[in-house]
Amino acid sequence: IVSFPNKIKAYHTGRKDVIEDVVNRGVDLKWSSSDREWLGSGVYFWAYSVEHAKRWRDLGYLLSWWSSSNDVAILEADIELKNCLNLLEPKGMKVLADAARDLQLLCKRNALRVPQNSRPVYGLPVERRLDCAITNLALLTNELIPGNGFDTVLGAFEDGEVIFPGSTFRRTSHLQISVRNHRCIKPLRML
To answer: Please, what's the b/e burial string for 109-142 (b: 16 or more CB within 10 A of its CB; e: otherwise)?
Structure first.
């Protein structure tokens, strides 16, 4: 479900020693499997925007994710979308809508609560447990069909304060990519 350029310049924020290993030794980045990731499990990249990666670096330092800004680096990479679940396309959103319906049925059938997203607090990242569960279910369902799994997920994320009262434009909206197939990541350099 790709109708986008095959290759996207993207940026990943992480520990400097890990980024050095990726660039210099070809080590694969680790997936994030947190239940808070809105595009499901994978390696997360900011599409086209080093500024968002820098913002994430600075936010991580403020929240003590790393001990100093010297411990953090940004990886610049080309991401080959390959078989991409493109959430900018109606077909991609239909895949998620079907998974949302299935998740609701599974939870009901097994007497489980449907996961919930939390509201943003002071502009900090939202916990997206519902979005993550829906996306992961969609990805896993498609992987059950041989040759039908997704290598990447691409989505637009509206984020931050509105730029002006009454406007719907938000200050930190961005495109994000979750990469599930390491062969799609072509590391270029460490920033």
So the answer is: eeeeeebeeeeeeeeeebbbbbbbbbbbbbbeeb
